[in-house]
Each structure stands twice: as structure tokens, then as C-alpha cells.
Amino acid sequence: MTDSIETEVIPRYRPPLDSMKRVRQELAKVYRQAKNSEIPLADATRYTYILQALARMLATETLEARIAALEAESGQIHLQGERNEEFIGSD
Known about the structure:
- By secondary structure, the protein is mainly alpha-helical.
- It has one domain (20-88).
- It has two helices and no strands.
- The protein is elongated and about 90 Å long.
- It starts with 19 loop residues before the first helix and ends with a helix.
């Protein structure tokens, strides 16, 4: 007869990696775990590679949003300039 030991699994809070700050924090955590031999170096290398890919995607996403905002602002300014020229030229 074997005794069954029931263990309660407590879900850990894992914040979403949706900002450069959070990705940096996770990367620092992986570094500390590897340095303290809590995780194998090979795993730390894989996790670092994935986190770097996430960081690049977040940076690209941020740049795309900034470019879109500048283009939208530029288009509005350009359209306003054309309207002003039409108004001035109507004398």
C-alpha cells in the first residue's frame, strides 16, 4: 500500500511581458537564477534568446506606433496647409 501525498499547487503570478521594463526584469531574473545555479545555463541561454526576441518585437511595435502617429499628424498639418492656401488664393 502506498501513501498518496496530496500537494496543493499554488499558481504563481506571472506578469505579462508586454513592456520593455517587464522583459528587462524577467531577463534579470533569469540571469540571477543562472548565476545562483538555480537553473541550468543551457536553459538560461534559451530563455535569454526568447526574451531578446520579445524585446525586439516590443521595440518594433513602439516604433511603428510612433511613426503612425507622426504620419497622422503630418497628414493633418499637410491638409490644413492646403486648406489655408486655397483660402488665401481665393482673393
